[in-house]
Structure formats: structure tokens, C-alpha cells
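Predict structure. Input: Phosphotransferase family protein, 284 residues.
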Amino acid sequence: MHTAEGSVSLEAIVETAVSELPLRIRRAQRTIINEGSAHVVVLLEDYAAVRVTRDLFTANKLRRRQQLVDSIPSDLGLTLPRSLGPVVEIEEHAAVATEFVSGAPYPAGEGEPEELQRLLEAVSSIDPCPLQSMLNEPLSFCGGANWYSVQIEEVIPRIDQQFRNLAREAIAALAHLEPEEQVFSHGDLGGYNVMWHRGQATGILDWDLSSMSDRSTDLASLGVWHGWEKLSKIAGADQVTRAGIRRNTFRLQQLGFLIIAHRPESEVSAAIGRANSWIAENLA
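Output follows.
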């Protein structure tokens, strides 16, 4: 089995996380999924999944994030990765065994607007009041209250000179976005975070970015994955415009996360390239 970053092996972390689970789960065949820059996920057939943080930056947040998932009402109508055991910590890593969420991501660019709207409304209807202490502040992953200074001081200087003004304009547009009604927001509602079966959303993964925000946050994520042209059938023109402002900074936000999380320079460099390419294709 591959090793997690640092001296402790991924196998040892997973063994610790599943140590109190039934034998059939502990002995299940394991499949490693490199899930983005923050976590590695190890699937134990269709019994469970073990989520392992890559570094201390995300390890410190895992316990609260899992508490949030376990606290979301069960009548949501969607399967969530609820805890099967406690969050364990080993060196700079944390891990937790969770329920297996069946289904598969919807192919990029596809998805019926009616079902996307149902998904969006299901998430935004979650009552945030009992969950307040477990929610992030908006944009916490890339700086939170300091996200703007991170963008200006850390992100912009790394962007190619020819694209810096466009990046600044996109950041300024988000910073000056007028406040709107706040609802529960998943924060990354699309792609591999939503499981589907026969054209219906059946489960949601990765609640790490959940916060109070307006509907355009999750609307933007849905549009990026399922097709921007579908948004006009889901929301009004003003919401679509707001979603576009958020979308224009997604690559810059991701770069900000990698910088403040002190991720390896190879990851930062790759994110810089993606940000430059996105600006060139969409904003230039």
C-alpha cells in the first residue's frame, strides 16, 4: 500500500481508524483514491471509507467536520459519510472511518436542471442553527476573513504578469459582492462530491467547506461541473451573475489554499499553471 506523506504509512493509519470495526470490514479489499490536495480516501469494498488528511493543516479540522456530517438531519433524503468510528490522530495526520456512500459522479457537462435544482434546494434548506458552531467562516480554506489579503499578497504575485490585472479584477468583484440572504452552503457541491444513481442525486461527500453563504456559492459549483448553460433553468439572472463572480476566482482560491497550507512546491506550481490557463481561456 502507498504511504501517506510523512513517516507513518497509510496502511498504519487505516488500520488504526478501523481497529474497532467488525472483522468483515477490516478484512475487506482496499482501494486507494487520491481525493484532491487535502485528503486520501481508502475504500473498503462497499462497507466503509476511511478518510485520511494529508497534513496537519487539514488534520486539525477533521474532527469538527465529521461532527458536522454526523449532526446533519437524517431526513435530508441523501446519504452522507457518517462516522463508523472515532477520529484518530497519528503524527501529522488524522483519519476517520465512515459509511460507504454508493453511486458514481455524474459525467461532466450532464445532468437534468430539475434534479440539480432539487439537490441545491435540499442542501440550502438544512437548518443551520443547531450546526453553527461546526460551520466554517466563508472561504476559510483559503484564508477566511483574510482571504482577500492572501489573494493580493500571496496569489497575485505568483500569477503570470500578463494575467495579474484580470485576476485582481476577479478578486475585487468577489470582495465587493453585495450581501444577500445567507443559507447553509456545502461549498463544493459538484463533481466527485455528489454521488448519483439513475439520474438522481443519492449522496454527498466532502463537507469540509460548509458555511453560511448565499445560494450562488453552491450554484457556481453545480454550473462548473454540470454546464453553465443549465443555471438559467435553476436560478434567476441575478443569482447566475453572482455565481459567475464566484466561479471566476475558483482557481485563485485553490491556489490560495495550497499556499497557506504549505503544500509542496510542485502542487503550488501546478495550481499556478491551471490558474493562468483558466484566466487565459475565460477572462482574457
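The domain at 113-282 is CATH 3.90.1200.10 (Aminoglycoside 3'-phosphotransferase; Chain: A, domain 2).
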